[in-house]
Amino acid sequence: MPAETPVISITRDGSIAIVTIDNPPVNALGLSLRQALWQTAETLDADPGVAAVVLVCAGRTFIAGADVGEFGAPPVPPHLPDVVARIEAARAPWFAAIHGSALGGGFEVAMGCRFRVAVASASVGLPEVTLGIVPGASGTVRTPRLAGVPAAVQLVTTGRPVKAAEALSLGLIDAIIQGELREGAIAFVRAALTKPLPPAISARPVAAQTTTFWAEQEAAIARRVKGETAPLRALAAIRKATEAPFAEAMAHERETFLELRASDQAAALRHVFFAERAAPRPAHLKSAAPLPLRNAAVIGGGTMGAGIVAALRDAGLPVTLIERDDAALDRGLTNVRAIFDGGVKRGKLTEAQAADRMAGVTTTCDYAALADVDLVIEAVFEEIGVKRAVFAELGRVCRPDTVLATNTSYLDPRCIAEGVAMPGRFIGLHFFSPAHVMKLLEIVPIPETAPETLATGFALGRALGKIPVQAGICEGFIGNRILKRYRAAAESLVRQGIAIEAVDAAMRGYGFAMGPFEAQDLGGLDIAHLQREAARAAGQAVPETLGDILVRAGRKGQKTGGGWYDYPPGERRPQPSATTGTLLSGAIRAGAALTPEAIAKRLVDEMAAEGAALLAEGIARNAADIDLVEIHGYGFPRWRGGPMFATRRKGAAKP
Predict the structure, then answer these.
(1) Per-chain mean pLDDT for the chain
(2) pTM greater than 0.85
(3) Choosing from 42, 88, 128, 228, which is the catalytic residue?
(4) Which of 127, 284, 365, 387 is buried most, with the most CB atoms less than 10 Å from its CB?
(5) How far, in Å, CA of 418 to CA of 256, rounded?
(6) Exposed/middle/buried for 45, CB within 10 Å: 0-12, 13-18, 19+?
(7) 331 pLDDT exceeds 60?
């Protein structure tokens, strides 16, 4: 149906028509806009006074892609490839003037124009593979003709957008406009009209590549995507564009797009997309206003505390780091500096940016320095007495409205908060290590937590670029509780006679970067062992695990040269261990056999069953939150949608 209000307006600057798209919030290419673009091209072609057309967008961005409201629905004409072709075939040449982001279909529309100009802050890209599809309106066919095959492969198969300066160097845009975009674009058009126009992109040649080039690209992409379909199909579409006429390549791209659009992977990635979009602003907090966050403090400069400091500084917040003595402060500051130095080495930060990050960190042993801090995050040793002592000090020196947060992974936040004055300001903020990298943030309110405090936790998540998920109080919250069941199920398979390396291989085949036993060796088996020992000391009946047997034998993982696997000196690649086999032989039955697919299904079903229990108990608010926790905190393959989505797709899991 046509939009209720016009999404396109036309003004004139002499013989130049300025077409302005105004379809908030992101000028998405829904049906009404496609119809309006088609009609606009018809109208301007019929006007002999129009020598050129400038396409600009109102609001904060150029066309930022498809209308997400149409995701999963059958395409309705006019189809976007036809709209792009109509713009390209226009009597008067079109010029795209880009600000914000020109993504997906937005950049394909821009490629239908004869020229593309952009402000310096703009970005362009073809992110369709991140939704399990390939570009469907010439992204795989016009891009290699515009920027060359290597640039097209990088842009299309990764989905990574590029800023204007890089886009200019790749040939994706023709100029960067300094100053006001509309006026700069008009000046560019007037200059361009004095020279012969380049051919339309569809008429430009594309260089053939060797079979070796394609084989190398396919191998590299396959290693990177670990089972994801769309990037390899995108590569095949680009190859088709170099080996077939334009129309044939377009038909192949469209066929691939429509096939993938109906796939399980695309459905999973759409599910994750919508879940991620909803997570930072949950509906139940719509009426709660977050408190101001002008500065923050972190108690504890160990690995987790330093990572939290770095995350806060990356978001621009000044941070005060508190430690128990000067030596601990020096170690904490060294930990923070190492994070930023690593960013410089990897090209993520400049030296000046790293220096600025460090300049915003103040260190002290005196809690009195926190008298005017808006947020304090405790990240000290995971022992209840230590944490309570910290909050006793914070309650003494901080303002009554300062948000007080604990980063506990397993302890009950209600116990930590006992005795805290004005407990409405208390909250759990469970970061995942390394805190400056991992995107998950579990937000754990206690019963007294005020809505404004909870909203502040989500506002912090947004500021830090995290995926915030609210969790209720139980052992391990959402993520670690599922992890515990996942590991127990993996051990159960080993007890039945399935080889440790077979379990890990099955989960890598499913899409995880590591299997459960490799991951435990990396993190250290002693961490979970100590938690079980503490529970036993408290009188809880905790059965002995296979991991306990290994830890008691001194095998704690990579750091001791052996855990589930052996790690020879200087070697981090796991080697099957005869020692482990001997230690566990009394607990293992022989003769079980399962296919990799059956192993993976067993373990994912166990994760989903625990998720169902979390939902039934009210610990998780919805299934999508559980999927986000597993994807962003525990490496569940994004393209499978998370354990709840994956099992719902194949058949409901039961707790």
Answers:
(1) 95
(2) yes
(3) 128
(4) 387
(5) 59
(6) middle
(7) yes
